[in-house]
Design brief:
There is one protein chain. By secondary structure, the protein is α+β, with helices and mostly antiparallel strands. The protein has a single domain, classed as Creatinase/methionine aminopeptidase superfamily (Creatine Amidinohydrolase, Alpha-Beta Complex), CATH 3.90.230. The protein is 28% helix and 26% strand. The protein is built from four helices and 15 strands. Strands 1, 2, 4 and 5 form a four-stranded antiparallel sheet that branches. The protein has a three-stranded antiparallel sheet with strand order 3-12-11, with no helix packed on it.
């Protein structure tokens, strides 16, 4: 495995700035998740708000991706393309995934939003996915933590609640690049046995399915859905390993 870059204090500050803008944008976008609102309306807001605050939406044009953010509903695991034809309805669970570039550095975050009253299963999945992310973050901050400890902690939570962990997508290092080393697996694994070092900056972004973990990509080349049609939920933060543990870099100011 290639040595994972240790970021300088200045780089971390710039990532923190980008992360704060991404987080603030995400909060406001989440407030729009109401019945009758199209995902395109939310996406246009994200693009406008980011520009108004001197940022760039990293997703737009990334390997040809057409919109400012990814908005994934119900059985969509990730990379849902916003559309005027996709209208939110009561009972939907929605993931909004935003990556912002500010002063050349990236901040990447996502969260789940419930539209109206959702089913008991949907709420449990949303809550468990958040807890799984938090446990992954906790594991990354432990003394002597190794990269594979993150996935092991997340898998334990999913197993305990009867959900599965998607293995087709993972977290990643981040900084000047949108996706840098290492790959951060969210399932039980023995990959990347090296220690997480102070100054490593990366994302943890587990995707949990109510059914089996398999996914497939639709004909648009982006939208990933559960193979069995079950619900999926994801949460994400960008963070840095410090001497004291973990500092989350995608928090609002």
């Amino acid at each position: 495995m290639a040595k994972i870059k240790v970021k300088s204090a200045k780089e971390i500050e710039l990532i923190r700035d980008a992360g704060a803008l991404a987080a603030e944008t995400l909060i406001r976008a989440g407030e729009m998740c109401k019945p009758g609102v199209s995902t395109l309306e939310i996406d246009e807001f994200i693009g406008d708000y980011t520009r108004q605050h001197k940022g760039i939406s990293a997703c737009k044009g990334y390997h040809g991706y057409p919109r400012y953010a990814c908005i994934s509903i119900n059985e969509v695991v990730c990379h849902g393309i916003p559309s005027a034809n996709t209208i939110l309805k009561d009972g939907d669970i929605v993931n909004i995934d935003i990556t912002t570039i500010l002063q050349g550095y990236h901040g990447d975050t996502s969260a789940m939003f419930c539209v109206g009253k959702v089913s008991k299963l949907a709420q449990e999945l949303v809550d468990t996915a958040k807890f799984a992310m938090e446990e992954g973050i906790r594991a990354a901050g432990e003394q002597g933590a190794r990269w594979y400890d993150i996935g092991n902690a997340i898998q334990d939570i999913a197993d305990e609640h009867g959900f599965s962990v998607v293995q087709d997508y993972c977290g990643h290092g981040i900084g000047r690049g949108f996706h840098e080393d290492p790959l951060v697996f969210h399932f039980r694994n023995n990959e990347y046995p090296s220690f997480i070092e102070v100054g490593n900056v990366f994302t943890i972004e587990p995707m949990l399915n109510a059914g089996r973990p398999g996914t497939k990509t639709l004909s648009d080349g982006w939208t990933a859905v559960t193979r069995d049609g079950s619900l999926s939920a994801q949460w994400e933060h960008t963070m840095v390993r410090t001497k004291d543990g973990i500092e989350i870099l995608t928090l609002p100011r």
